[in-house]
Hints:
This protein is mostly beta strands. The chain is 0% helix and 52% strand.
Amino acid sequence: QVQLVESGGASVQAGGSLRLSCAVSQRTSDYYDYAVGWFRQTPGKEREFVAVLNWNDRYYVDFVKGRFTISRDNVKNTVYLQMNALKPEDTAVYYCAATPLFSSSYDYRRPISYDSWGQGTQVTVSS
């Protein structure tokens, strides 16, 4: 089972940047056996996909392309989400999630496709 702990959420002004961290630990299996993604959720809305790192492949939702970057530090077993040019509509609780490495046909955009979740970290962007 994979354990995930997010950090890095904060309040920033529009146009600013934040880097979220997701520390990944597991009792069994190799760290590299898992894809790690980021989702976000606002009150009253469903959790939505933001980005995922599947081995060396990166996938992003359209509205963050060019602004957000997902990356991995293999020494620290940590996955990052660098968020630039933040907008008020990026305000949400951000969650990281893990699932075993997947093939191209896998529906990585759905929360149900992930079996481990962190507790979430709040990001607030003010105008």
